[in-house]
Design goal:
Elements: E1 3-5, H1 15-18, H2 26-36, H3 40-59, E2 66-70, H4 76-84, E3 89-94, H5 97-107, E4 116-119, E5 132-138, H6 146-159, E6 160-171, H7 181-188, H8 202-207, E7 211-220, E8 223-231
Parallel strand pairs: 2-3, 2-5, 3-4, 5-6
Antiparallel strand pairs: 1-7, 6-8, 7-8
Helix pairs in contact: 3-4
S-adenosylmethionine binds next to helix 2, helix 3 and helix 4.
């Protein structure tokens, strides 16, 4: 079950000093995910499905909206987004062709769906300024260097409409027994973890003047996730 923490209650000051920085370069991420793509959904569902479902709930998509999922992966969340928004705009981007192929395969099962799935980078979104109502981004900040995060948040801010919604899911620092196992594996072999380690985004969002409404902690098969709802 998730635990809800109101943003002002978050004690994340100084948290980053305790967290690991990324050890897999962005240059190698595409190749890693091309390789992982065929089996990605197994762990993606076993350890992350609750947090991903909660993100979709918090996104509260209304048909007709402009929705962007950045780093769409194999489309586990994008399928749910497109299903809820048949008459709106649904854009999914990712840098891994292997992950995108899986996403296209999944979305092909939805009849009458309206979407675009394109290769692209979260650092330079091919999307107009202030055009997006809801931006969803799951398990991607946990791949980035701390120094890269601000740049991506600025890009998210550029494309979001005023008052637009940002829904983020990240692997985070474990808060319960056993959850440290995944950061332990990362220390030994970051690629085994697909380059993901625990991060905490709420304070960074506030620093970029996003209004953080909620931050929830989820733990599934010991895997620790945070789900954040924020507004531009
Ligand atoms: C851990 S997977 C998460 C996939 C999906 N969001 C999910 O929740 O299942 C990370 C994804 O981020 C993508 N990614 C990493 N860096 C990226 C970048 N700079 N631009 C676009 N996608 C990126 C990877 O290719 C991969 O598909």
């Amino acid at each position: 079950m998730g635990r809800s923490v109101s943003c002002c209650g978050i004690t994340c000051s100084g948290k980053e000093e305790r967290l690991l920085d990324a050890r897999v370069s962005q240059k190698n991420i595409g190749a890693i995910y091309d390789r992982i793509a065929p089996v990605y959904d197994i762990l993606g569902k076993l350890t992350e499905s609750r947090a991903r479902s909660r993100a979709i709930e918090l996104a509260d998509i209304k048909d007709g909206q402009h929705v962007l999922e950045a780093a769409v992966g194999t489309g586990l969340a994008f399928y749910e987004i497109v299903k809820r928004n048949p008459h709106g705009t649904n854009i999914g981007i990712d840098l891994s062709q292997g992950m995108l192929e899986k996403a296209r395969e999944r979305l092909s099962k939805l009849s009458g769906a309206h979407y675009a799935l394109d290769k692209g980078s979260i650092f330079h979104l091919n999307v107009e300024d202030e055009s997006i109502d809801i931006l969803v981004n799951n398990y991607m900040f946990d791949l980035l260097l701390f120094e890269e995060m601000g740049k991506v948040l600025k890009e998210f801010k550029r494309v979001l409409k005023r008052g637009g919604k940002l829904v983020l899911v990240n692997m985070t620092e474990g808060e319960r027994f056993g959850s440290g196992i995944y950061d332990f594996i990362y220390r030994i072999s970051p690629a085994t973890m697909g380059g993901c380690r625990g991060v905490a985004l709420a304070e960074r969002l506030q620093a970029q003047s996003f209004r953080v409404e909620t931050r929830e902690y989820y733990q599934q098969m010991l895997f620790p996730s945070e789900v954040i709802l924020a507004y531009k």
